[in-house]
């Protein structure tokens, strides 16, 4: 009944797409029209085999040695791979912003579709996992925002893949300032010592997927992976919904 009423309301009072301002299709509750969603930029080859950074087109996937970006050659991260479906620009940037700062949870309907597609395409990698851990927010920030977007992603992935969600094993014990205006070095210093692990011994010999929403310089995922590695995990794999181009 609720759906019928909502459908009728959206037919008579169509909301507009938050990007192109055209009327949304009836029953579209994702705040963005399907035309705009279709403009999402996917991460496509060639990219770094470690951090998925897009690489110049002269690189061909399947070259004899695995492709690595300059940064991963110089200072390899402590996770084996960053898996990331999309680029953090245009539609995706706006969508994540709407979810995070305007609490437009309808956005998540479409994000789940993107996740499902990516999980199916990379099923082999994801089938090796033992546990999924979302990057936590500090409890103060969690209270302000009301939800942790990384947790929403991790919970969906855990259900989809039938892999255990260990959402209270990694804690954010230090409040960190917003990273948006910080340089790469400042970000690394900002998250240093920000996390603590509960029951660390339970991670021994486990393959763990760390989940975050956005990958910018990678400072947060690097720090969390560094800490988890001290508990003799077998492997850490990282996931972000979108990465800076
Ligand atoms: Zn649109
Ligand atoms: Zn790289």
Shape: globular
Low-confidence stretches: none
Count of individual helical segments? 10
Mean pLDDT: 90
Q: Which architecture of the largest domain would the CATH scheme give at its second level?
A: 3-Layer(aba) Sandwich
Indicate the CATH class of the largest domain: Alpha Beta
Share in β-strands: 5-15%
Largest sheet: 6 strands, parallel
Q: Compute the gyration radius: what is it?
A: 19 Å
Distance between the termini: 44 Å
Q: Which percent bin holds the helix content?
A: 25-40%
- What is the strand tally? 8
Order of helices and strands: HHHEEHHHEHHEEHEEHE
Bound molecules: zinc ion
Give a quick summary of the entry.
This protein is of the alpha/beta class.
């Amino acid at each position: 009944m609720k759906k019928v009423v909502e459908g009728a309301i959206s037919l008579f009072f169509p909301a507009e797409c938050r990007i192109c301002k055209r009327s949304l299709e009836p029953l579209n509750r994702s705040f963005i029209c399907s035309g705009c969603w279709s403009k999402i930029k996917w991460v496509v080859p060639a990219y770094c085999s470690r951090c998925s950074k897009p690489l110049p087109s002269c690189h061909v996937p399947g070259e004899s040695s695995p492709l690595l970006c300059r940064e991963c050659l110089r200072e390899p991260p402590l996770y084996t791979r960053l898996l990331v479906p999309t680029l953090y620009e245009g539609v995706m940037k706006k969508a994540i912003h709407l979810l995070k700062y305007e609490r437009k949870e309808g956005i998540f309907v479409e994000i789940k579709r993107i996740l499902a597609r990516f999980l199916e395409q990379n099923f082999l990698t994801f089938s090796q996992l033992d546990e999924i851990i979302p990057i936590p927010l500090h409890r103060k920030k969690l209270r302000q925002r009301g939800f942790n977007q990384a947790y929403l992603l991790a919970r969906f992935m855990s259900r989809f893949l039938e892999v255990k969600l260990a959402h209270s094993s990694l804690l954010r014990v230090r409040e960190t300032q917003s990273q948006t205006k910080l340089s790469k070095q400042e970000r690394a210093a900002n998250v240093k010592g920000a996390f603590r692990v509960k029951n660390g011994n339970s991670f021994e010999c486990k393959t763990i997927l760390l989940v975050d929403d956005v990958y910018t310089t990678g400072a947060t995922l690097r720090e969390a992976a560094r800490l988890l590695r001290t508990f003799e995990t077998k492997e850490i794999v990282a996931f972000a919904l979108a990465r800076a181009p």
